Structure formats: structure tokens, C-alpha cells
Amino acid sequence: GVVPSKASFSMHSILVNHFLRGAWYPKGGAGEIAFHTIPVIRKAGGNVLGNAPVQRILLDSQGKACGVSVKKGQGLVNIFAPVIISDAGIFNTYERLLPAEARALPEIQSQLRMATHGEGGFTVFVGLNGSREELGLEPTNYFIYAGDDLDEIMNRYLASSREEAAKNIPLLFVTCPSAKDPTWETRHPGKSTLAIVTFAKYEWFEEWKDKQVSKRGDDYEELKKTFVDTIMQAVFKLYPRIEDRIEYISGGTPLTNQHYIASPRGEIYGIDHNIARLQAEAIATVRAQTAVPNLYLTGQDLCLGGFVGALQGALICGSAVLKRNLYADVARLKKRTQATDSKK
Hints:
Blueprint: H1 9-20, H2 31-43, E1 54-59, E2 65-72, E3 75-80, E4 84-86, H3 90-97, H4 100-103, H5 106-114, E5 121-129, H6 132-135, E6 142-145, H7 150-159, H8 162-167, E7 171-175, H9 177-180, H10 184-187, E8 191-199, H11 218-238, E9 246-252, H12 254-261, H13 280-285, E10 295-297, H14 306-322, H15 326-343
Parallel strand pairs: 4-10
Antiparallel strand pairs: 1-2, 2-3, 5-8, 5-9, 6-7, 7-8
């Protein structure tokens, strides 16, 4: 999520090494992750609530986290627990959900000073009439760049006006989720999907932040459409057969991310995972344990951006809560699994 001059070489090397051997995709789509995780949580005595946004973290008289207050209809419901784990991100957890007296703790202020917001994201989701074979789609992630000097083209883009930026997008990530899913054709015959991601500054859309979603006005919709049109012209060069086969297309700005996933400034990878974030002091300071007893952090902000980064954050957090090295447990599980597989 950062330009090369701000990226950690070691972290990027690990990422490249991973993708050299290919990538994984869940059969049935990303929703299968939640579908199979929720029963495990419930079997252990927990529960998963939908449409219940957390409004604040509750503290007891000693300043210890003891629960959360969630929205239910027009009212609030308090849910109490001995351990509170936040995947809402550092800024949301500390600045939105904690009361002022906890937010002012020196340890929390130190963490906030070390963190900066990641860049906002712009997404395009496309529904297509036609199968993977008909449209020439591939189960491949494409990164499309407008030039070789990634620092220069991205810095120029992010420094430009929103009108200029919308017509000169230097970086696109293009993927075809339906082509990756071996169950897709059975479930949705003759249909396909594309997802495209790029970066966009929150400031370009900030003037509409207080407007209701889907009712932000013609100027907002026109700016969003210009971004989408520019993006799709590049995608048509990659997949020319799709141009007259689009049944659905939707663009999402940083404000879309802010509304649906509560990212403070429309970021998709949490805080900025630049070199400063990966310095020893920052890594030692931003930990799963917080200055508020019984409150823990997990997810991308604790480790790295992306699904695997968030998963690492969960392992780190789980280890802290249980006071047990879950990485050792995973290593032992891998050995047992390999031993079982070798006997088949």
C-alpha cells in the first residue's frame, strides 16, 4: 500500500516470494471464510452479531475494559466480557471508541503519534454477461502501471487536483474473482465478475463526507464516474471482449469505504505500513496489549496490510490473550497434518 521508496524491502520480498508459488482463493468466494468461521465461534460459546455497530468500549470504575456498547435499532445494548479485542483499527479504537480519559493515556498517545492513515482506496466492481471462456478472463492478478518510475507517477498523481487525477490514474490492480473460483460456473452459469482497485486521496472527496450515502449529489457522482470511465478504458485494453458485456458496474470512493467498513479516511489497508511503521521502536510500541487493561488490538494495524497481514495480527493477539505461543501450535498442527496426509 505504499510507494517503493517507502516500502520495506524485506516485507516486499516475503510478499513476492509468496506469490511466486501462486495464491489461494476460497472456493465459493470470500464469504465462505465467515460462513465457516462463525459456527466455530458459536460452538465455543460465542456469538456473531450483524447490523450491530459498536458505539463505544465500556470501562469499569478502575479503568479496565469490561464490554462494548452496540447499536440495536434506535437504542444501545451493553455487552459485557472479561476480554475486549478490537479489529476496528488503531484510530477507530483509540479516537472513536475509547472515552476521553483513556484516549489521553501517554502510551496510547505514543502509539497514535507513530501511526499515520493509509492512502484512500477507489474500487470498481463489474458484473458481466458471459463465461470466463467467452470473455477471455483469467484467474490472474494484474498490476497495470502508467510508467516505470512508480514513485514519480504516484507522487505526481497524489499531488494533482481531483479533476486531473480522475483522468490520469497511474496504477490499477485488476482481478477476476469468478475465474478463480472453481464453483462459480455451477452457481452462476454464463456470468462473470471483475474487481479493480487503485488509490485515491480522501481529500478529493472530503467535501461530501457529511452527505448521506447514495445522495451526495451530481458533482460527486460525476467525479466518481470520471474515475470509473478512466479505469475501465485501461481494463478494456486488457480484456477487450468485455466492453459490450457489462451488466453491472459500481464505483466506490474513499467515502464509500468510510461508510461501509468504517475506515477513518477511506483507507483499505489500515494505517500506513511504511518503513517508519516497521522500525523496531514502532513494532515494540504497537502491540496487541494496550494501556487499557483487558483491551487488545488485532488485525492489519497490528501487523501488516491485507488478509494475511490481518491473520498474523490475529495470531499475535491470540498469543497475547492466552499467554501462549500460537505460532508453535500452528507449527505442530502442520506437522500432524503432514504426517496424516503422508499415510493416505
